[in-house]
Amino acid sequence: MWLQKEISLKPRSRGFHLITDEVLRELPELRNFRVGMLNVFIQHTSASLTLNENADPTVRQDFESYFNQAVPEDEPYYRHRDEGPDDLPAHIKSSLLGSSLNIPVGDGRLKLGTWQGIYLCEHRNNGGSRRIIITIQGE
């Protein structure tokens, strides 16, 4: 069995945001899958997805601090500046983290670890709403 849905996420500020519950709210069909694989894909080049710590918000703050230092804005060697100083750094951060996740499904739920959650990594100051495609294959 296959299922595919497009989900629009509300606009968020720049940073790393847990979206696990928001994704699950949009997937009541998940309970029908005994075993399978869920793919989450973001349709943007200036935001990304990752799995990480779902309990302590300082982890998300530290991620933002690290990536801002590792990929700073306004570097003189950047040529792509069409949409502001956060645009090219957002593309680089998105490439580093990635645009999709694969998560096992079992017994009608995501088989995430105890402390794992899905992050929307918003790399733009004003990124707007984001679209993700959820695809589940299983039985």
In summary, what is this structure?
InterPro entries: UPF0047_YjbQ-like, YjbQ-like_sf. This protein is an alpha+beta fold.
How would you characterize the overall build of this protein?
The protein has one domain: Jelly Rolls. Helix content is 22%, strand content 37%. The chain has three helices and eight strands. The mean pLDDT is 97.
End-to-end separation in angstroms reads: 6 Å
Strand content: 35-45%
What share of the residues lie within helices? 10-25%
Q: What strand line-up does the widest sheet have?
A: 1-8-3-5-6
Number of DSSP strands? 8
Q: How is this fold's topology laid out?
A:
Blueprint: E1 2-9, E2 15-18, H1 20-25, E3 35-42, E4 47-53, H2 57-70, H3 87-97, E5 100-106, E6 109-110, E7 116-122, E8 130-138
Antiparallel strand pairs: 1-8, 2-7, 3-5, 3-8, 4-7, 5-6
Organism: Sideroxyarcus emersonii
Family: Belongs to the UPF0047 family.
Protein name: YjbQ family protein
